[in-house]
Design a protein that fits this description.
162 residues, 25% helix, single chain, YbaK protein, alpha/beta
Amino acid sequence: MDKQQIYDYLKQENVWHEITEHKAVYNMAELSSIEIPYPEYDAKNLFVRDDKKRNYYLITVKGDKRVDLKEFRKKNNTRPLSFASADDLMDIMGLIPGAVTPFGLLNDSECKVTLFLDNEFMNDLGFIGVHPNDNTATVCLKAKDLIKLIEQHGNTVNVVPI
């Protein structure tokens, strides 16, 4: 799915969302210079794989949070982790570096990737801000709706403290 297909899918599924179009951003620092409605709910996404290249994970946390992969591994019982390659990112989710998003899981035809979503997104309003498979926009929606869409697709979602 490309950006427009994500927008159409959200409408089709009757999911509340707000879209902010903006210049391309490739990291959280660049995103912080953009005016968006709910910056405190922006997500940072790390696409990682285990040392055997058998398991792929998307770790999604609030934008200002750091992720210790060794600590994550211990808490979630995975093999040693490292960042997946740009080729894996394109082959599995059809995304480029800088545009990594949970919506990319909707392009994961083999449902290879497991999403680990930080449970902080479930607090207060429950919003999450993510790219629509393109880093020229941010879509804000309810985290529970995002989880539902990804699970409907067939990927596993784990909501955990990260």
